[in-house]
Amino acid sequence: MKPTADLYDEHGDDLQSCTTQFRSFGARTSFEGAVTTVRCHEDNVVLKATLGEPGAGRVLVVDGGGSLAAALMGDLIADLGASNGWEGVVINGAVRDVEALSKINLGVKALGSNPRKSRKEGVGVRDVEVSFGGVTFTPGCHLYSDADGILVTRA
């Protein structure tokens, strides 16, 4: 993958640039792929079910509403995603099991961490447009992520 700075230099405003300052938690520091989305709040049932499907090189973008009150993903779910062929996960929310995440072959970006588990009520939706950091993430768009940030193609 080309660095995001080079991609932006080549394509400019044809790419959306996410202003949210995520932390990187996974073993992969650079990743890219077609976007699949989940919107959920402190409940990770839909997120886990999605990562349990074949990823086929996709990136899961999760809008957790920016909540840091409970982790939406930990090492077990990240390992599930990696073993199913997902390239990465971007979470507008929290993760847990930070040391273990750093060893899993998956790109993981999130706002922060919290050891508290999320609820398991199954409240959430997938394959809908989600927006944060000045970017609208539309299922099927392409996402590029590295140490400089996140770029997304426009719908």
Automatic annotation (TrEMBL):
Gene Ontology molecular function terms on file: 4-hydroxy-4-methyl-2-oxoglutarate aldolase activity; metal ion binding; oxaloacetate decarboxylase activity; ribonuclease inhibitor activity
The keyword Acyltransferase belongs to this UniProt entry's keyword annotation: no
First-tier enzyme category under EC: lyase
The entry's keywords: Lyase, Magnesium, Metal-binding
GO BP annotations listed: regulation of RNA metabolic process
Function description: Catalyzes the aldol cleavage of 4-hydroxy-4-methyl-2-oxoglutarate (HMG) into 2 molecules of pyruvate. Also contains a secondary oxaloacetate (OAA) decarboxylase activity due to the common pyruvate enolate transition state formed following C-C bond cleavage in the retro-aldol and decarboxylation reactions.
Assembly: Homotrimer.
Protein name: 4-hydroxy-4-methyl-2-oxoglutarate aldolase
Organism phylogeny: Bacteria, Bacillati, Actinomycetota, Actinomycetes, Kitasatosporales
